[in-house]
Amino acid sequence: MKRLSHELTLEGQPGAFAASLMNSSADLVARACRGEQEAFRLIFERYSRPVISFIYDLVSDRGLAEELTQETFVRAFRNLGTLRQETKLSTWLFGIAKNVARESLRARMRASRQVDLEDKSVLDLSDHSPVPVHQLLNKELNELIQRSLALLDDDKRLVFTLKVFQQCSYEEIADITGFSISKLKSDLHRARSEMRRRISPYVRF
Amino acid sequence: MKCDDCQNLLAEYIDGEAIESDAEQVSAHLITCAECTHEFETLTAEQEVFARYDRELNISPAMWHAIEARTTERRPPDSTSRLSLPAWLSGLFAAPRYGLAGALAVLIVGVMIGVMYLRNQPQTKTPERIAGGKSQTPTGTPENLVAAVNPTEPPQKLKPVEPTKTVSVKESSKSNRITTGSADQSDVLFSDIAYSDIENKDTADHIAQAQNLLRSIRNIHPGDNDEEIDVTFEKAMSRRLLDENVVLRRDAETSGKFPVKSLLGDLEPFLIDIANLPDKTTPTELRAIKDRVQKTEIVAALQSY
To answer: Is the pTM of this model over 0.95?
Structure first.
């Protein structure tokens, strides 16, 4: 009984609360740095979905996004010791993911295997008369957003994805991308206008 | 508040990024203006559409297994596991099993190997031949270069023994070009890449000019009276450097000089920002760039090159 109560509490805290404290990002990083694989697995569990979504938005390729997500977490693991205390783990991971995705895109460009982003096939998906958003099939809407994103230039896509999909603050986006606040605001504004222009013929807001 | 001002702030307002006073004014304006309210509703509806975006991505257990397999090969960096050269040497001398005698034996063997090597290859290391190159003293040590331009590289690559190796390989490579030496081919390849990094005069000149530009921006002290500052010269210089930067960055990338590529990639946003300044800029805009130059320590990174 004594042992059980010891397991349920930690330094006077109720067990669940203690467990949540133990699993804060800072604690997970510290434990992973000490070589605890389980702590790093929890980091992966917590951040893999936003990271893979972010990478997918940048590279528009599901298989490649999975590969690059792996690479992101491997690099993160190897560089955990360089993570500064004041840096948010998510911001740091997005920063690595951005670098990994950009390296891959450049390599792909070099290999001249880049798909034609001006492919207009998606633009033929409707009869050009606005339809209410609920009538647009989810699958088509997803394709439309994905193709519209792919048509943005790299900087705008990066900023748009971080703001609109990952809900990062301007300050976090500036940390991740290295852009100034004025540049990212201007890119975001233009990205929004472009996305609206591409989507509005098919979706009546 | 005018409609134009309101609509310019709407996105920031929805994102929760507008400053408090602006947010209050936007809220007040939206109550009375149908046109801006319509724009607000459109933006909100857009957000909802994007919130429904489903990428249909799955995180498979295989992904974690692959990461686990790759990460268990190598433990995360631990500051205690990375010994500096002096620490390693002192550790060697302090080894209890061999003590001073062991250390001296190692030293003597090292000296003997060195003497034999010099006797066997007297012509490969003459100062005249080494001095025959274009530039003998790189502006930064290889260690600094690697550390500055590629901070995300695993720290294992920054072991203190590497710079020594790089320099010696560089020298032997130079002599190989003159005499037909029989050095290991992988070393020659590595030294060629490293040496051409430093030899690349265009890149070095470009980086020196970029450094000057950023220093000049950093040293401008805008007054408190919001007086506009003339940055025509800096802007023109930045535009020229930006064109150069794009070309050099691509060259570095195609020739596999990734540290240089990364450094030029880091520099580019600064050049873009300066090139896009109005001829007479406001102290606020200038301060934003100055702050970023200081915060990111880009000048120090360029200096290390």
So the answer is: no
